Amino acid sequence: MEIASKTVAADINPFQLNFIRFLIGGVILLPTSMQVINRKNIELNRNDCIYFIATGFLGIVISMSFFQFAILYTMASTVAIIFSANPTFTTPIAYFLLNEKINKKVMLSLAVSLLGVFFILNPFGIHTDMKGIILAILAAITFAVYSVVSKMRVERYGCVVSTCFSFLAGDIILLVLMLISHLPLFATYQQGNITPLLVDIPIISGINYSNIAVLIYLGVVVSGLGFLFYFMAMEKSSASVASIVFFIKPALAPLFCLLILRKLLLRTLL
């Protein structure tokens, strides 16, 4: 996710990228979601709509926006390592909100994994990209809250429905915010007051043949299937156990960054 996002970060606005990837993911999951709703005879009410709006806002609009901006301001491998620490926040939040028990094995795995993340990040080194690091931490914290809140009703809807409708609700909110960014009021504050990334956010422009494959990958594989598998794991186990899978990222992300981003950079220079 981090590496693919980094390859298009210079061409696609962070909010636009979120909108596109979760729109694709939501549409992909929609037919299956409708089948599940019909099979379970689920009648969505006002509270359900509020729930999907809340999870969509928290996960898609807030957490993933922090994530995309972090990708823009620092290295993809750094964001992947920091974001992988979200189980540290998921576990205590799940304990208080879901009454999930924390056993010694979970605590031990968290401690060992966090120690590894600590050394990989090299906190005693000099970082010039603190803005990206702070944004990545905020993304990890808010994603942990999103995971726990999503777990609360996953048994009622099933993981497919919960994932799909959270995506679509979050995308509707994103679309409204993107349209608001085109109002003259925002243009007034553009010079020196707010980042240009928050003004006149494009919806379609910027998409071309060179990045369409990456956008499809982010929408179908990362957003649609990736989130679906994550919540399926959560449905079968617990929020704490499912989130520990994120500790695989610190091992894989730097390696993929070296193999993929370095190759792309060399190709650009040549």
UniProtKB/TrEMBL annotation:
Coiled-coil regions, chain positions: none
Domain EamA: residue ranges: 3-121, 130-263
Spans traversing the lipid bilayer: 19-37, 49-73, 79-98, 105-126, 132-149, 161-187, 207-232, 239-261
Keywords: Membrane, Transmembrane, Transmembrane helix
Topology term for the membrane: Multi-pass membrane protein
Signal peptide: none
Subcellular locations according to the entry: Membrane
Main localization category: membrane
Entry keyword Transmembrane helix: yes
Membrane in keyword set: yes
PANTHER family cross-referenced by the UniProt entry: EAMA DOMAIN-CONTAINING PROTEIN (PTHR32322:SF2), INNER MEMBRANE TRANSPORTER (PTHR32322)
Family from the record: Belongs to the EamA transporter family.
Name of the featured protein: EamA domain-containing protein
Organism the protein comes from: Sporomusa silvacetica DSM 10669
